[in-house]
Structure formats: structure tokens, C-alpha cells
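Case study 2.
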Amino acid sequence: MKDDTTRARIQVSLSHELLDRIDAYCTRIGVPRSSWIQIALAETLDQRDDVKEDGNR
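Prediction:
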């Protein structure tokens, strides 16, 4: 059985245009939307943390 205790469900509002772009991209690369959003958010945060630690911004 899958343990969902480490996950949280959130609700986000996106424009239809952005959601269509995300869905098209996920279909092309064969990744579920939810997985891609998690990856994209984690990568964005990692990049921002790197910039902050380097003192570039």
C-alpha cells in the first residue's frame, strides 16, 4: 500500500492557456502533469537558492 503521509494536496489556479501548454509539454515528454509540476518547482527553487547562496542577487 502507498504511504501518502509525506504528500500534501494543494489547489492552484492557472490560466487555460498555461495549463494547455503544460499538458502539451507533458504529453510530448511522457510525464504526468503532477510529476512535471513538482520537478519544475523543485528546479526553480534550487536555482533561486543557488543564486542566493552565490550572492548574485
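The two ends are 45 Å apart (CA to CA).
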